[in-house]
Amino acid sequence: MKILVIEDEDDIRRIAAVSLSKLGGMVVLEAASGPEGLTKAKSEMPDVILLDVMMPLIDGPATLQSLKNDPATANIPVIFLTAKAMEEELSRLKELGAAGVLVKPFDPIMLPNQVTSLLTAFCKGEVRG
């Protein structure tokens, strides 16, 4: 599985990338911003995108909207990463069309399984957080 991690914080992006590649056996692409992520999503066509909510330039929700508006990337499942764990925020992100939401700080050991579980549930039509 190919996953694109769009996260502006270098440390978080690297930890996620190592976790997903070494523990999850995934091919990991990285982007440090929304605009860079949009470009990589279109050129690389990942199977799933792990997307930070709060980023400069273009935040996660606006990045998701741009992905959905482009026929080439509209069907790529997106899992948000957020530090805001309040239920109404999680619900709002799911309503935007996310395949799921993971809360930071995440457990690097659990991350590959969480991504796989959310993606499986989304593909079966059982969107969860």
Cα-atom Rg, whole angstroms? Answer: 13 Å
Overall structural domain count: 1
- In CATH terms, what is the fold-level topology? Rossmann fold
Q: Strand pairing plus helix content: what structural class?
A: alpha/beta
- What order do the SSEs take from the amino end to the carboxyl end, as H and E? EHEHEHEHEH
Can you identify the CATH class?
A: Alpha Beta
| Overall average pLDDT | 93
CATH evolutionary superfamily: Response regulator
Which spans have pLDDT < 50 for at least 5 consecutive residues?
A: none
Helix percent reads 40-55%
Helix count from the secondary structure assignment: 5
CATH architecture: 3-Layer(aba) Sandwich
Sequence-ordered SSE layout with sheet pairings:
Elements: E1 2-6, H1 10-23, E2 27-31, H2 34-44, E3 48-52, H3 60-69, E4 78-82, H4 87-95, E5 100-103, H5 111-123
Parallel strand pairs: 1-2, 1-3, 3-4, 4-5
Helix pairs in contact: 2-3
